Amino acid sequence: MVHQAIDGGRAFDWGLTSREYAKYRDIYPQEFYDRIVERNLCTRGQRVLDIGTGTGVLPRNLYFYGAEWTGTDISENQIAEAERLSEESGMDITYLVCAAEDIHFPEKTFDVITACQCFFYFDHKKTAPVLAGILKENGRLLVLYMAWLPFEDRIAGASEELVLKYNPCWSGAGETRRPVFIPDEIKEYFDLVSHEEFDLKVPFTRTAWHGRMKACRGVGASMTETELAAWETEHKKMLEETAPEKFEVLHYAAIAELRVKK
Predict the structure, then answer these.
(1) Is 216:27 a contact under the CB 8 Å cutoff?
(2) With the C-alpha atoms ordered 174, 76, 35, 29, is the resulting torsion angle positive or negative?
(3) Residue 35, number of CB atoms within 10 A of its CB
């Protein structure tokens, strides 16, 4: 995938890091899911579509609240991991390999559409009318995001510096707290119901944090083999010298709830 507004146009492929993604990116704390369910979204009696589902983190963690889930993603490898993990847990979740811009479902199919950690990748001019059309009357679009805070968390900041050393075009660095950005194309079809931002402390071991960093866009999804090998060696050494075996990394989460315009 190439997006001129992301990483200076450097190509990235989540399929290259699907194994690490499946193992190390299922990290959202329970509070993250509680904030969704407290809105009476993604619960029993609802049909939910998760676009950009990756390895199915969102549908798998919300599955036992009773909604009927479908997940889509552009990457075959990501969907393969999502299917494997769901089957291993006995979860009946439908997955489809499909770009968000190419989604085709009958009108008014879903009660909720979720997009977690992926919304900024989409062509909103194409997706906005499609998403509005497949949502039922009063249907909800839930846009979710979580990121570490490198200027406040020492370990996160040091890890970012190493990513930028080997991939200076990476535009995922330097996050600060902010609401989810909702582009004008989406606002043509949806009204903002609410948004919130809140801090979360996410626990890691050295191995888990290394895996989480490797599974990010700027590392495993885009570095060359040579760059990745050098980064891995240096990142592991940095963690051994500066991080305890177990630690927490400060993140913030952001949620925007939108409703289809009447």
Answers:
(1) no
(2) negative
(3) 15
List, in sequence order, every beta strand (DSSP E) within 17-61: 47-51
Which is nearest to 145 in space by CA: 112, 96, 180?
A: 180
Structure tokens at 34: 């509680």
Whole-Å CA distances, 69 to 27, 38, 85, 94, 111: 20, 18, 14, 7, 11
What's the pLDDT at 249? 98
- Categorise residue 174: left if φ over 0, alpha if ψ from -120 to 50, beta otherwise: left
d(CA 62, CA 68): 10
What is the token pair recorded at 183?
A: 């582009």
pLDDT tens digits along 117-167: 999 999 999 999 999 999 999 999 999 999 999 999 999 999 999 999 999
Strand pairing class (110-116; 94-97): unpaired
Q: pTM of the prediction?
A: 0.95
Residues 6 or more apart whose CB falls under 8 angstroms from that of 207 comprise none
Q: How far is it, in rounded angstroms, from Cα 212 to Cα 6?
A: 20
